[in-house]
Amino acid sequence: MGQTEVRGVDSERVTGWLAVNIAGVEPPLQFDLIAGGHSNLTYGVTDAAGQRYVVRRPPLGHVLATAHDMSREHRIISALGATEVPVPPALGLCTDESVNGAPFYVMGFVDGNVIRDAATAEKLLDIDQRRRAGESVVDVLAGIHAVDVEAVGLGDLGKHEGYIARQLKRWYSQFEASNALTKRPVPLVHELHDRLSAAIPEQQGTAIVHGDYRLDNCMLGHDGTIAAVLDWEICTLGDPLADVGLLLVYWTEADDTKAALLGAPTAAPGFLDRTEMVARYAKASDRDVSSLDFYVAFGYWKLACIIEGVYSRYAGGAMGDASGFEAFEKQVAMLAEQAAVVADRAGI
Q1: Which CATH number fits domain 118-345: 3.90.1200.10, 3.40.50.720, 3.90.1640.10, 3.30.70.260?
Q2: Which ranges in the chain belong to alpha helices (H)?
Q3: So what's the pLDDT on residue 328?
Q4: What pLDDT is stored for residue 65 in this prediction?
Q5: Could you tell me which residues are beta bridge partners of residue 55?
Q6: What is the pLDDT of residue 124?
Q7: Domain boundaries in the chain?
Q8: Which fold is adopted by the domain 11-108?
Q9: With contact defined as beta carbons under 8 Å apart, do 285 and 139 qualify?
Q10: Residue 284: φ, ψ to 5°
Q11: What is the per-residue pLDDT for 58?
Q12: Parts of the chain with a pLDDT under 50
């Protein structure tokens, strides 16, 4: 097996760095871009002995500030590795950009399945395993929110209060930066920013907030339970109900006419429905979920802002092949419309 070149990896330099800094690595290395994901780039790495690793780096070009911080992501999974939260082993961080043109970090490989669509869910998980997966998604999220941030050394990861207000400011700013590149009107995103800003519920404590928690950002073990939570790039401290609201945005049911995720894996039979998810989380966390519609509306709005960023990077060529990126343009409008529906229902 020889070293292979893939876009975004200087195979010679990265191999040299891994050989020196990651115990047990045996060159030459095979690098493969892992399919899925529209933000940080993830590569599978196999060495001459068949050992497997994972490398994460920022996207190529058009990187928005703070959204792709490798040091931060590595720090988070390193800290959580000492808790009951399932995360991949953090093996090393390279901040020397002369190695690969951008920082990157290395994780241990976790065996399992990422379920991105209903067909894959039905193929790889039986009915009982799908229900178990839904239960595990809720239980692990409650576990993330129960972590003592001071005890694991993450007490300074972010401000403890005012999370939603800061998030509204952050994602609105990034939406405007991305929208300046796409040069198209999306007035509902602006309107919802103002409506949500005027109706923020009182924050219930401070917790680790994953920021993009959903089924296909988890590696499932072969029994259906979560083997590792992935993609911590926008994690911070704040209001835990923001994670719950966004999870419900992603958690598509079979009779939904619109889906936030194009593949909608949870539309397959057997998964918990959203009512069951909320009840299980409320019991596990002992939190008041009566204001959850606000967080669902915020989740739709935030996702619209994120997808506008993805759309702008595809349109600018930063994510490689740009064919089909027009779907993201339509998705932004749909997400904003769904946010408005939930906001109306909640009287926001």
Answers
A1: 3.90.1200.10
A2: 11-21, 70-80, 97-100, 118-124, 127-146, 163-182, 187-197, 241-250, 274-285, 292-315, 326-345
A3: 80
A4: 47
A5: 43, 106
A6: 97
A7: 11-108, 118-345
A8: Phosphorylase Kinase; domain 1 (3.30.200)
A9: no
A10: -70, -35
A11: 87
A12: 36-37, 62, 65
